[in-house]
Amino acid sequence: MKEHLLGLEGYTGDEILEILELSKTFRQVLDRDVKRLPTLKGITVANLFFEPSTRTRMSFELAEKRLSADVINFSASTSSVKKGENLRDTVDNIGAMKVDMTVIRHGAVGSAQFIAKHCKTVVINAGDGAHEHPTQALLDFYTIREHFPDFKGLKVCIVGDALHSRVIRSNVFGLKALGADVTLCAPSTLLPMGVESWGVKVNCDIEEAIRGANVVNIMRLQLERQTAGYIPSLREYGIVWGINSELVDLMDKDHIIMHPGPMNRGVEITQDVADAPESVILPQVTNGVAVRMAILYLLAPRSGDIHE
Amino acid sequence: MIEILDKDHLARSITRIATEVVERNAGAKNLAIVGIRTRGVPLAERLANEIETLEGIRPPVGTIDITLYRDDFKEITSSPDVGGSNLLFGVEGKDIVLVDDVLFTGRTVRSAIEAIIDYGRPNTIQLVVIVDRGHRELPICADYLGKKVSLKDNEYVEVHISEIDGEDRVVKVTRK
Q1: Quick check: A302 and B68 CB within 8 A?
Q2: Is A37 in Cβ contact with B69 (below 8 Å)?
């Protein structure tokens, strides 16, 4: 494991599998009556959320508390950022209060990297702009692995806004390293320039893309994409790209349906698909806590690391 | 390297401990055996086998990994393997027989007790160790003991178990 978790780019399949394997231990803890371990007693974690988030933030906070870490929260809307303080000063000031680890969500690409480089703290990226969201991808892989133990050749179809989605980027980097057979599907206006260089299949025809897939991972359509002119209308996106039961019927008989949330029911996913028995959308949320516990455990500073 | 227990002596110790366990607990009905990773695990299996021979009931056997319960997290330089715990039976109301190879500072046992209690409230927790080498740092003692030895600070006990080390033998080694 590296010193920080900034993104999955550059991780090998074995490194990812090691994290997933360790996560199993923490997942078991979540099924106990006492869902708490004393492991990170004395470690302080700051959750810095410069962008709104409910799920990821709660998931991190629960993971930290279940490991007995001390937790402080920060949200941009109520902070000195409003008074004009820059990012580095904000993090340095929090670091001066002897915080060991920082979880950061920020709208700017590279913000997690910037903090890791300039501030004395262990950094976990909880989403930086359209760049990466590594813990979301890891919990997706954990959930896939519960159903399909081997990633080699596994057919994964990712549907949605590849131009803006950090979840897609982290998924693509990780799934490629794990040896999965990935197909990306989106309207051509929502595909980034140079997507060919990502090394995965790209197919704008949803019927072709989803046919025979074992996993479909459906991304949230940011509603503001419509006003920005990327798609004609939400209704049209829903008709053409929304995953409905007819499309699911084209998948392999052995399949699961995933979505990182929050869902726009009736836009990128229909009601019946979201609530189908093959839907693992809620298990994804449960597993997220376990995977984040594993990441915190692996990265928590030991003696001689950061603070003496 | 000086031998403390040979293969036969180790086997007899486990047989004797099994007898003591069923005597004190008036049978094996409410027992569950828990081995502390790593060498407590095969020892727990052997103890369960001996109890089965005596009583005709094989108590359930679980394993516990104390890595996540250590009190020295910050002192460990790299992240050690976490083996995971496996207590499939409910510990609630059981008489838990905790098994480890060597009793030294008592910190491992303290961690194991904390870990077990996070699974529920057992009736009792009793401790089996093969060798007590002294130098305790916490108020913990064994209920059932293979052998007690007095060692200097630079002397250590190694319990070799055939499932892991290829031989059954307990030795004393000196480290600088």
Answers
A1: no
A2: yes
Question: Where in the sequence is the domain holding B108, given as residue range(s)?
Answer: 8-73+83-151
Q: Where are the domains of chain A?
A: 13-133+286-299, 134-280
B170: in domain: no
B contacts of A302 (beta carbons < 8 Å): 73-79
CA-CA distance, A303 to B76, in Å (whole number)? 7
The whole-angstrom separation of Cα A52 and Cα A57 is 9
DSSP string, B9-36: HHHHHHHHHHHHHHHHTTSSTTEEEEEE
The pLDDT tens digits for A127-174 are: 999 999 999 999 999 999 999 999 999 999 999 999 999 999 999 999
In the prediction, which pLDDT does B81 show?
Answer: 65
Nearest neighbour of B120 by CB, restricted to A33, A39, A297: A33
Determine the Cα–Cα distance for residues A154 and A152; give it in Å rounded to an integer.
6
Coil vs helix vs strand at A281: helix
In A, which residues are within 8 Å of B117 by CB distance? 34
According to CATH, the superfamily of the domain at A13-133+286-299 is: Aspartate/ornithine carbamoyltransferase (3.40.50.1370)
Rounded Cα distance between B51 and A252, Å, is: 51
Separation CA B173–CA B161 (nearest Å): 16
Q: Which residue of chain A comes nearest to B116, CA vs CA? A: A34
**Interface ipTM:** 0.78
In a domain, B162, yes or no: no
Fold identical between A13-133+286-299 and A134-280? yes
* Residue of chain A with shortest Cα separation from B79: A298
| Inter-chain residue contact B74 with A34, CB threshold 8 Å | no
| Rounded average pLDDT over B80-97 | 83
* Architecture label for domain A134-280: 3-Layer(aba) Sandwich (3.40)
Q: Report the mean per-residue pLDDT for chain A.
A: 92
Check residue A306 and give its pLDDT: 41
- CA–CA distance, A47 with A105 (Å, rounded to integer): 8
User: pLDDT (tens digit, 9 = 90+) per residue, B43-79?
Assistant: 999 999 999 999 999 999 999 999 889 887 777 655 5
Mutate to test the interface with B, among A18, A68, A303, A305 (most CBs of B within 10 A): A303
Q: Which of residues 243-302 of A touch B (CB under 8 A)?
A: 297-298, 300-302
List, run by run, the mean pLDDT of 10-residue segments along chain A (308 residues): 91 96 93 89 94 92 96 80 80 88 95 92 95 98 98 97 95 98 96 93 96 97 84 92 97 98 94 97 97 96 55
